[in-house]
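User: Here's a protein and a ligand (zinc ion). What would the complex look like?
Assistant: Let me lay out the input and then the predicted complex.
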Amino acid sequence: MTTLITGGLVVSATGSSLQDVLIDGERIVALLAPGSAIAASVQPEVTIDARGKYVIPGGIDAHTHMEMPFGGTFASDTFETGTRAAAWGGTTTIVDFVVQAHGQRVQDQVALWHEKAGGNCAVDYAFHQIIGDVNHESLKAMDELIGEGITSFKLFMAYPGVFLSSDGQILQAMQAGAANGGLIMMHAENGSAIDVLVQQALARGDTSPYFHGTSRPWQAEQEATHRAIMLADLTGAPLYVVHVSAKQALARIAEARNAGQNVFGETCPQYLYLSLEEQLGAPGFEGAKWVCSTPLRSRAEGHQDELWKYIRTGDVTTVSTDHCPFCMKDQKELGIGDFSKIPNGIGSVEHRMDLLFQGVVDGRISLERWVDVCCTTPARMFGLYGKKGVIAAGADADIVIYDPSGHTSIGVEATHHMNMDYSAWEGYEIDGHVDVVLSRGTVIKDGTGYIGSKSHGRFVKRSLSQNLI
Ligand code: URP
Ligand code: ZN
Ligand code: ZN
């Protein structure tokens, strides 16, 4: 099947130009001067008119948790529902986290994740590995996984007794990463200090969702970020700090980067738009909708504006969602009367491309930076570049046609396809719209809606990061 996308503005991380895109089967075969394919009598089987629209690489969401076991329940999106929602929103690759908790074997968990995802994904998928139990066997598994295309490993400085690694364990895992080329990802919050603050808040009777935020202060994030950076420096391991929400933590990341260290920061749409005061502080138990860790930060302290600034400077390397949805009913409700029992997570996999495009409309980032942080740099960061993240001959034809004159109303009734009974983004209006989505040359979403299939998505083996200094 040959497809020609004509008349659109092809936007890449480095610039934008009017070009036609020729696709043969699953791959892009050429970028052509507008109209030249027709002039040369190329006869595509399908022609897609993209005049007045942006033609961008499919989004890569490098941080999702489909069906993740957490907080006594499971994230409510399966690979089937979550990747379908991703497709609706212009994301054509997800990188999900295989979870190894205490006492579990890494390789057993990898097999379980392949079983859960295989044959159930609307878009392509890859895996990171959570190492929740750093020991001789899991360190050995880190080496094995590199050859299996799982080339990044998440460690936790938070959640004592669940996922937290001691500094010594972190050091060992970083030494393994430095030796095998894998990328160490870090949940950087001081979990032991937070646990004390949580117990003190509950003892005072401060049990509502707002106190989830105040018991995880920015100091706990900055301290852990600093510690992770120092341990990475000591071992020579590259470090990618996930879901950064505190401006002070990002300042520390920027400082390390200025010193030439391979340190990278990820943030998420919730930290750019939402706040401690407005969302976590909503009346009654409403704030539970936005309980996630790291927490939403104070708008009065100016974290949100500062994070946008760090996207512009490049110190925020990628914007992912940390998609980890839970319904209010029976899930978030587990924490009524005790915020520490609210499962942590927000669902956004469907909305990341739109929410970040709104940053373009609002003059916060350029069109090219939008594509860079949502598509191209995630590909480079996680060993997918060339195949994914770019519109170029030879790349997979993962393409989004985005309409800057379109409109998207976000809400559980209006647009939402995630398996959640609420939207963390209810009422958000976006001055743009995902029109057409192609995954490996197949149109999976068009003007009529989602037209893909759950057997379409394939596991993608990743190379080592292509983003290191
Ligand atoms: O609240 C969050 N972030 N839930 C998902 C697990 C994690 O730490 O990324
Ligand atoms: Zn985390
Ligand atoms: Zn996460």
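Summary: The mean pLDDT is 97.
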